[in-house]
Amino acid sequence: MTEGGWLTLGVEEEYQIVDAEGRLRAHIDTLMQAATPRLGELVKPEFIQSEVEVGTEICADVAEARREVTRLRATLAELLEEAGLRLASAGTNPISHWHDQKITESERYKLLEEEMQDIARELLIFGLHVHVGIPDPDLRIEIVNEARYFLPHLLALSTSSPFWLGRNTGLKSYRTTVWSRFPRTGIPLEFPSHDEWENYVELLIKTNSIDNGKKIWWDLRAHYLYPTIEFRICDAATRVEETMCIVALIQATVAKLLRLRRQNLGFRKYPPALVAENKWRAARHGVAGNLIDWGKQSEVAMRDLAEEWIEFVDDVVDELGSRAEVEYVRTMVNEGSSADRQLATFEKTGDLSAVVDGVCAETVEGL
Fold it and tell me: What is the per-residue pLDDT across 103-112, written as a single tens digit (0 to 9) for each?
């Protein structure tokens, strides 16, 4: 099913570089010098010097993506440990303040800061992005239109950012709120064809609104350079098992939507405003909450939606070789997300450093 570039995977994870107290530490230049000989172009600096991004090679299946994610995490964790630092994977750092961060020396980031001002400087957030290969450009747009429905469900599973600037925000994903301040974010618009999508991008470039399609930062987008669609809604997932479950669910959902199209059975498309209602619920309550089933016009517990989701993709997961990863979603909804575990640690200890310790331990669990 993944032949010819179909349903291939690329996984990008943004990690925190933290010290013994759990605070973010500017260390990217030193880390890049140590990591590049081993990881090449798979490791990249980000906007702030206390963040590092890695992206896997193009992977044929979930098993290969798991090997890549594990290798990248393990390598960075080892290099940071040698420097007395740690790797943490979560949507926000509970302790650190954006005031104290150093911006990475790069022309691109200087221009971004100049354009966005404090909105860019406050960007102390970390995400998980997943690419799925769809070589046909018009199908890419059609699948984006349909797959938008699942974005809140993915966000709920990934929630890992309940703390911001030393406070319990009351949200399971505060990263979502911080990121929403940027322009051209949120649930994507519907486009009838790839040509219409390209016309939109070209119009924004022509009017000096953006310089390329990279600055359309929606929660899901047809990538402007690669023959992929990119899911961008998720907080950084803390455990490798959580990352792999999300990756597997995304790939299986896209595979199922493609199969339905081949059978002339479309999946119902919902307006962005309705998807956004569920996105708010996911950010606020995570896996403990209810989302709205717009077909039934009623609230449904995330736990029940997970079972429906497993059933929805049941006829594609064995072909993809990802049944175990997909069914891990039951563990995620039953045991809670990273945000739930962070909040439980804080309730027990009253100590945000202990929260970061827990995140760091889970980030490298099983590596």
Answer: 888 888 888 8
- Is residue 342 within 8 A of residue 163, CB to CB? The reply is yes
Q: How far apart are CA 145 and CA 148, in angstroms?
A: 6
Find out whether 275 and 191 touch, Cβ atoms under 8 Å.
Answer: no
| Separation of alpha carbons 64 and 208, rounded Å | 40
> The tokens of 140 are what?
């890419």
**Interstrand relation of 9-18 and 127-133 (parallel, antiparallel or unpaired):** antiparallel
Closest CA to 185 of 151, 116, 233, 144: 233
- Sequence letter at residue 185: T
CA-to-CA distance for 119 and 332, rounded, in angstroms? Answer: 32
CA-to-CA distance for 178 and 293, rounded, in angstroms?
27
What gap in Å lies between CA 365 and CA 359, rounded to an integer? 10
pTM of the full structure: 0.97
Residue among 62, 39, 51, 58 nearest 13 (CA): 51
Cα angle 242, 291, 230 (rounded to 5 degrees) comes to: 50
Which residues have a Cβ under 8 Å from the Cβ of 47 and sit 6 or more positions away? 103, 104, 109, 112, 120, 123
Are 325 and 244 in contact by the 8 Å Cβ rule? The answer is yes
Q: Indicate the pLDDT class of residue 35, thresholds 50, 70 and 90.
A: very high
C-alpha distances in angstroms, 151 versus 110, 123, 136, 146?
31, 21, 22, 10
Here the tokens at position 345 are: 């640690």
